[in-house]
Amino acid sequence: MSNSFELCVGPIHPALKEPIQLDFEVEGERVKNVSFKLGQVHRAIEWAGMRRNPIQILYLAERICGICNVCHPMAFSMALEKIAEIEVPKRAEYIRVINAELERIHSHILWAGVAAHELGFDSVMHYTWRVREKVLDIIEMLNGNRITKGVFMIGGVRRDVKKEHIPKIRQALQYYRDCYAKLEKIFLKDASIKARTRDIGVLSKKEALKLCAVGPTARASGVKKDIRVDFAYAAYPWLDIKPVTPEIAGLKARGDTFDRILVRLLEVKQSIDLIEQCLNDLPAGPILAEPVLQKLLVQLKGVEGESIALQEAPRGELIHYLKMAAQDSPYAWKVRAPTYANLPPLIPMLSGCEIADIPIVAASIDPCISCTNRVVQIDNDDSILSMDKLRELSVQKTNKILREVKK
User: Fold this and answer.
1) What are the structural domains, with CATH classification, of the chain?
2) The model's pTM
3) Cβ atoms within 10 A of the Cβ of 224, count?
């Protein structure tokens, strides 16, 4: 006789900030098997994008994710620039990196607060989110808004980094250098946090490679994979950068939750250094290949071809596929968000954990479900339900439930 039972977490659950269903087979307090179900969020962003011109899509792409939204318009721009053979000015490439790395700092520190919350340390969450305010202030100074920035444009960026901005950016970078020691002490040296994260939610290097994990999730397992290095774009080819793994801190990669915290904190330090390099080497020149948007739209209307753009978002490898067919809007636009790749690795991470570990292990991949879910439209009349058919199916479902309740 089996002593195991089923436990369902989600799609609505206090430990989940977005809807995903995690189904567990549990024996006592120990997780034996795991499966997950997506599909609770559909915003039809790709469908809407294929009915807009490329400049309008930039602002739509930015809303795929509310936290790391710079990466989506950047990837879309890169894909279209390949098709249209648009050469981005060198100064714009540096400004793109500055914005991307500011967002990485903001995203990783926000995640650290979420991780602290999942561990039950809300005072740490409030501290880290207070620390995060400084980078949001700098983002607002540069772009006029804290979250959705509207800074990217096909062929460059819409807003320059001015001379008066640079001292304030450097001041913010120094602020994070000064804060880092305290963040390190809280997250990496506290005995309680270490007890809750060391050897918890382990993803081996072999499993990370087999399951195609990306971003900090993969690097925490010792996989030296980073799109900024492997397929360098924007200004990254001119910067000193290498993938961040636990070995950089002199530790052997275990691929556990602790290592995923470590990698993200180390990447905050790396982002500070990359922004400093960009400020030191920022070239003069224009920030847009074509500053007149009407001329740009006419140029883009005539392009044909397809391309794939890869971008290292804060959560990992982001893919935008784009096909243009000499018309106002794209013929096809497909987005593969990092969380889509990092969900299968959750299965070995959660297997063998205790029930109390589920929230922090699930949070350790920094999941974004709204980024991940997609709708595929099929040209088949049988797949389209009329209002009458939908009502009929609803009545049938309700009657079935009532019959089962009465048994």
Assistant:
1) 4-39+373-406 (no CATH), 45-371 (1.10.645.10)
2) 0.89
3) 14
